[in-house]
Design brief:
Helices cover 18% and strands 43% of the residues. It contains 2 helices and 8 strands; from the N terminus they run E-H-E-E-E-E-H-E-E-E. A hairpin with a 3-residue loop joins strand 6 and strand 7. 16% of the residues are buried.
Amino acid sequence: MKPAVQHWEVSSRDYKKAKDFYGKVFGWEFKIFEEMSYAMTSAQEENSIGGGIGPVQEGQEPNVTFYITVDDPQAYLDKIEQAGGKTIMPPQAVPDVGTLAMFSDLDGNVIGLYASEKK
């Protein structure tokens, strides 16, 4: 599998207002996951990807993150660290979804890694 961008995420101080904003501007429809304070939209066109809007994490500023699909997040974190990046979040299993991890690049940009639960 060749790594590819799979998902985007907007972190906001008020995810519901952000969801309404993007919905109005781009016509996107969202599924709300109240228990996670998260809204997801599916790919809108054949060559697009879906994404989500959620609350900004404590101590962070609003930001945009994208997730890259890989077969083994830990192996990629090892490569990232060897190349000068940093692990921000080690691989964590998300039931019925897969495994997520986060890293920062040489400029401090935070990017996610994703491995599907389905093989």
